[in-house]
Specification:
There is one protein chain. The chain is α+β, with helices and mostly antiparallel strands. Helices cover 33% and strands 21% of the residues. It contains six helices and five strands. It has a five-stranded mixed β-sheet. Strand 2 and strand 3 form a beta hairpin. It is globular. InterPro entries: Bact_Acetyltransf, GNAT_dom.
Length: 170
C-alpha cells in the first residue's frame, strides 16, 4: 500500500551537492551570512570556502532541494588528530534561505550530515558560531550539542589611520 502523506511529499530532498549547485549555494550563503548577522561569518564566507570543501570532502557537502530549487546546504569535513583514536566531524557551514528558516530544512540537513559523519567513523561533531548568535545556539542545543564554550575573537583593522603618539621632547 503506497504511503501518501502530503507532508512527506512537500519535504525537501536531501542530496549530495553537485558542481552545478555551487553558484546557488554561494548566493544563499551571501544572503544568510551578512555583516549585520555576523561580521566574522561575513568576512570568511567566500567561493573558496565552498570549492575547497567540495573538492576535499564532497560526500559531506549536501543540499536540501524542493522542485529543483535549493533551499539550504550543509558543508562539513572530518579531522583526525595524530596520536588520537578519535575522528571528529566539523560542521563548517549550515545555511538555509531566510524565508525558509524555522521550517525544519536545517534540521533535515543536520540529521543527514550527522548520519554521514557516523558512517565515516566520527565520534564527535564540532561546530562554532558567534557567542551572540542565539538562533544558532538554540538550534544546536535542540540537536544535542552541549558544553558551550565562548571564545574571544579580535580584529585589527590595518586600513584605519593610527593615531600617532606624541613624542616627548627631552
Amino acid at each position: 500500500m503506497p504511503h501518501n502523506d502530503q507532508h512527506e511529499e512537500e519535504a525537501p530532498r536531501i542530496r549530495q551537492m553537485i558542481i552545478e549547485d555551487l553558484p546557488e549555494v554561494f548566493h544563499i550563503g551571501e544572503e544568510v551570512f551578512t555583516a549585520e548577522y555576523s561580521q566574522s561569518l561575513y568576512r570568511t564566507w567566500d567561493e573558496y570556502e565552498i570549492t575547497t570543501l567540495f573538492n576535499s570532502d564532497n560526500e559531506l557537502c549536501i543540499v536540501a532541494e524542493h522542485e529543483d530549487r535549493i533551499l539550504g546546504f550543509a558543508l562539513g569535513t572530518t579531522v583526525k588528530k595524530h596520536h588520537s583514536p578519535w575522528k571528529y566531524g566539523y560542521l563548517v557551514w549550515l545555511g538555509v534561505r531566510r524565508e525558509l528558516q524555522k521550517v525544519q530544512v536545517g534540521a533535515r540537513l543536520f540529521k543527514e550530515l550527522k548520519r554521514r559523519f557516523k558512517e565515516q567513523g566520527v565520534r564527535m561533531i564540532i561546530i562554532d558560531t558567534s557567542a551572540d548568535n542565539e538562533p544558532a545556539i538554540r538550534f544546536f542545543k535542540k540537536h544535542g550539542f552541549d558544553n558551550v564554550q565562548e571564545h574571544l575573537y579580535m580584529t585589527l583593522n590595518l586600513s584605519k589611520r593610527q593615531k600617532k603618539k606624541p613624542v616627548k621632547k627631552p
